[in-house]
Design a protein that fits this description.
Layout: H1 9-32, H2 42-49, H3 53-59, H4 63-85, H5 92-109, H6 111-119, H7 133-144, H8 153-171, H9 180-195, H10 199-213
């Protein structure tokens, strides 16, 4: 008599754990887009995720670890988008221009993730902070070029971060009416001129990057609206 094969229970359990973890991260990201982590309770997170409270502690040691993981995942997604846009671009001015345009598009297509990005970045204004490693490398690369040879690394990082954050936040304002491509063109030009690029070249690079990365099709909100984690 043949014995019926038992289903592979560990795999089923693993899938269930993965779904629970994803639900918690998804809920946490949505909540943290609206409030700082200090004002958020574990009870609210598990209620939004529709899982038992004990499940939270099966995956995360505490709320701070949970927030760090969400913040890191959102940063990775934004950085991957920038890297993809600049994969074959070597000119420092074009790379910086395209990076700013990508962040603006990221804010439009992933509103919750963009809001999380600036909420969960303590120490983000430090040029040597891990979160700014990619940006610092871009500034160092630009400084080694003939275009930005007088650029100080810390000054460059702070200027770029400031313009990125204010541009992202502006395009998400409910009352904002200026098309994102126009916002991006102006902000990129100001950024490049602030970093030392000649006005005519800054204007040309800005217009090209904005047109390439912020076309009408690319600025429609994503149906998913939130980043994968």
């Amino acid at each position: 008599m043949k014995t019926a094969l038992q289903p592979p229970m560990p795999r089923r359990i693993d899938r269930r754990r993965a779904r629970t973890r994803a639900a918690l991260l998804h809920a946490g990201r949505a909540l943290m887009a609206q409030r700082d982590v200090d004002g958020l309770s574990v009870d609210e997170i598990v209620a939004a995720a529709d899982v038992a409270k004990g499940s939270f502690y099966n995956h995360f040691a505490d709320k701070e670890v949970f927030a760090r993981e969400i913040g890191a995942a959102v940063r990775r997604q934004a950085e991957e988008a920038v890297n993809a846009a600049n994969a074959i671009i070597t000119d420092p001015a074009q790379r910086l221009a395209r990076a700013l345009c990508v962040f603006i598009r990221f804010a439009i297509e992933h509103r919750d993730s963009a809001q999380v990005l600036w909420r969960l970045n303590s120490g983000a204004t430090m040029a040597d902070a891990p979160v700014n490693r990619g940006l610092r490398e871009e500034v160092v690369r630009a400084r080694l070029s003939h275009q930005f040879k007088d650029l100080e690394v810390e000054t460059g990082v702070l200027l770029i971060m400031g313009i990125i954050v204010i541009s992202m936040r502006h395009v998400l304002e409910e009352r904002a009416t200026t098309p994102p491509v126009v916002v991006a063109t102006g902000m990129v030009e100001v950024l490049l001129r602030g970093l030392g690029l000649a006005a005519r070249q800054a204007r040309s690079v800005a217009a090209r990057a904005a047109a390439d990365l912020l076309s009408a099709a690319s600025t429609r909100p994503s149906t998913a609206m939130v980043a994968r984690i």
